[in-house]
């Protein structure tokens, strides 16, 4: 199961890495807030349908994996957790990310988002959720160096970008809180349910806040490629990848899952080079190798972790 989950997490990295170029192409015909709002609505609808299907399928002989269904009833605390996770992990994260990208450079944004595994690991250790050994911290450090080598060498933190830099850091904090809070819930509930319900909850205020952006959409000019991008991004970048992410959190823990997200900016760089013709420097190649080495070290840390 561990090896299969590793493969799924790599698939998640490829999907999220490609999603940057897919969305960048779509933003040429539809404002980011409007595009993202429609994407979240479709993703929420698919998750809700999946939750209802899982409840019916669980009654059949053989049952379902705990990734898809658990019979544990919701407590009052669980309902509160679902609400704040939805607001932070979907409404807050998406608002900070979209606004941050608009106000800072691509290098700054990728560098800051690439630091999310370190933030997740630090918060998890601080809260006593996980005991992380030297190999894991070494892997996180090597991966962080790889992110810096790939996208941080040319980054600038000046008066023109600091507001966007701050928003990107807030997005990282939202994602870390969402990952750790969701991990607690999934001790009793399935990743499908937790991810789906938090997305449904978080989508409602996001859509309300994005309503003014719909007035700026030239609907007659939106082509089929943009509509196809919206559907594929919703299905794969939201539904499939979020489910894989939380399955990893449930089975591996938040810190060991988060280390995979170090590879996402690097995949995004590679796809942008192939698709958009962006140059790939030696520093970026060095960064790719360092990030892969960091993930390998973290994988070793998981293999040799003492049994509890």
Describe the structure.
- The protein has helices at residues 2-26, 32-57, 76-103, 106-113, 116-126, 134-152, 162-185, 191-210, 224-252, 254-258, 264-276, 282-303.
- The chain is globular, with a radius of gyration of 19 Å.
- The longest helix has 29 residues, at 224-252.
- It is built from 12 helices and no strands.
- Residues 304-308 have low confidence and may be disordered.
- With 308 residues, the chain is mostly helical.
- The protein starts with a helix and ends in a 5-residue tail after the last helix.
- It has one domain (2-303).
Layout of secondary structure:
Elements: H1 2-26, H2 32-57, H3 76-103, H4 106-113, H5 116-126, H6 134-152, H7 162-185, H8 191-210, H9 224-252, H10 254-258, H11 264-276, H12 282-303
Helix pairs in contact: 1-9, 1-11, 2-8, 2-9, 3-7, 3-8, 4-6, 4-7, 5-7, 6-12, 8-9
Task: Count the DSSP helices.
Answer: 12
> What is the helix content?
over 70%
Strand content: under 5%
> How would a crystallographer describe the biggest sheet?
none
The termini sit apart by 19 Å
Q: Low-confidence parts, pLDDT < 50 over ≥5 residues?
A: 304-308
Please write the string of helix (H) and strand (E) elements: HHHHHHHHHHHH
The total strand number stands at 0
Average of pLDDT: 81
Give the overall form.
globular
Helix/strand-derived category reads mainly alpha
